[in-house]
TrEMBL record, chain A:
The keyword Methyltransferase does not apply. It comes from the Bacteria. This is ABC transporter ATPase. PROSITE patterns: ABC_TRANSPORTER_1, ABC_TRANSPORTER_2. GO terms for molecular function: ATP binding; ATP hydrolysis activity; transmembrane transporter activity. InterPro entries: AAA+_ATPase, ABC_transporter-like_ATP-bd, ABC_transporter-like_CS, ABC_transpr_LolD-like, MacB-like_ATP-bd, P-loop_NTPase. Keywords: ATP-binding, Hydrolase, Nucleotide-binding, Transport. Residues 2-222 form the ABC transporter domain. The keyword Transmembrane helix does not apply. SUPFAM superfamilies: P-loop containing nucleoside triphosphate hydrolases. Pfam families: ABC_tran (PF00005).
Amino acid sequence: MIVLEAVSKSFIQGDESIPALANISLHVKRGECVVLKGPSGSGKSTLLSLIAGLMQPSQGEVRVDGKEISKLPEHFSAAIRRQKIGFIFQKYHLIVHLSVLENVMTPLIPENLPLHVLEMKAKAVMEQCGIAHKAKMRVNRLSGGEQQRVAIARALINDPLIVLADEPTANLDEKLSRALIDELAILKEKGVTLLIATHDPLFFDLGFVDKIIEIHNGEIIV
Amino acid sequence: MIADAIKLELNTTLKTLPQITLQRFVAGKQSDVPISRVDALLDIEGISSMTPRIWGYYYFKPAGVNFSVVGIDAYEEQYSQTLSKLTQQFDPKLLESEHAMIIGAGVKKVLSENYYTDFFNFVTSEGKWQKVSIAGIFNSDLTLESNDLILVPKKLAYAIFGMDESKATDIVVKVANVKEIPTIVQKITERFPDLRAITQDDIRVSYQNLFDYKSGFFLSLFSVCAFAFFIIIYDKTSGLSSEEKKEIGILKAIGWSSDDILKEKFYESFTLAMGAFLVGIAFSLFYVYGMQAPLLRNVFMGYSELKPSFVLPFSVDSSMFVLLFLLSVPIYIAATLIPAWRASSLDAEEVMR
């Protein structure tokens, strides 16, 4: 489902090239749940962004569902993100002047679906994430936990094959973190491929996690 | 729109003005013209008719307004179409016998507000009361010309102004061929150097200058607004706010392509700019023609004392709307799309950060 072959990524700062990932190779099968663990700045988020096609690798190949997302024209990589991937960002990245419902519907707008279909899909995932009662509220008036649930609902509206979660419990208390883990377990049961970047110990002894990969200084250790 | 409406009214009014008006100047001041001059001038070839006019302004102190008082004679040819129509409606002989006058709608309003409903007492130049009854009210198509007008029999006009009956305020000349006007004017001034001939063109030029001057005042206001608009456009084009950039980054991250973002930005800016344009035009039309342009109208209408009664005729220049549209809507859309295109061509991760 997800294949990374000898992927490296460096960022240019002035005249300096700062390596973020070095020679990463990774294979994730369909329906697998992989946890990427490592300290802050180890390269976990960069790895997820490369898989989602949000940035290009400096070297190597990134293939998602058989397609080399890193080399696809922007229009096609956007379509893959829209149709196959759900991304839960660490900082939620919600559009603050829109309501909960509008935020959740946003990924499917380019699909040109009728409005009632969009609303129906959005309401279903909002129910699933327990945020439907705040549908008309602006997201900047929600608590951190509620914003996280909106971000999850937005990531799930397209019935993704892959869910990429970047530090999903970073801003949640333990109770909300466990609720989120339950949500992820349900997704895993449905056959969704999960890639979770985290340094939260709650994820390290879960029954539904198939693989834990440790990253340190941009390299896979285990 | 205000300028266009008033220009339309003025141009229509100017067409009804006399071809040549003769005024007498003594010691640099306007003076009454001896009526004997009419006979002396009639032998100039090309002149088809001459009409001595008795007219002047009457200041009505309680309202602080001037009325235009014009004397009419049943046996004389009327020098304007408006007067011809009015003398057909109201018999001047009857006015004379009943010591009455006919008044414009604006005059009627002012007099009614001051409790003069059936008659009015003029104060003559000798300080005597001159009671004149109101025989009728007229509504002309040309409100600018007739709104402040009072028509009285010539004898009564002489009495009100305290003028010698052998004199007139000025003389109106009609010519057979308009191309000969400059030649006739030359002949008249050669024969009577104290007469000043004012042609229809002279009045048109003088009004035009006045309007150009006042339009210039508005043009300067418009320039300030346009400058402010272009500063906003420059600001918009030079870069997006961090919030807007982040929004574009988020949209890319959740699966929007640059095309989708630009399409959305286009619809958004088009709706906003077109909506603002239409609301602005609707508001302008309502302000000028619905509300009669309060405040701004006075700048153009400075010479009329009966300003409130003047109705701006509907006059719309479609080329002005096209120009306004081209100067606002496409420019605003471009100013929205260019920075959005720049931001959407970057990596989503970079833009979000």
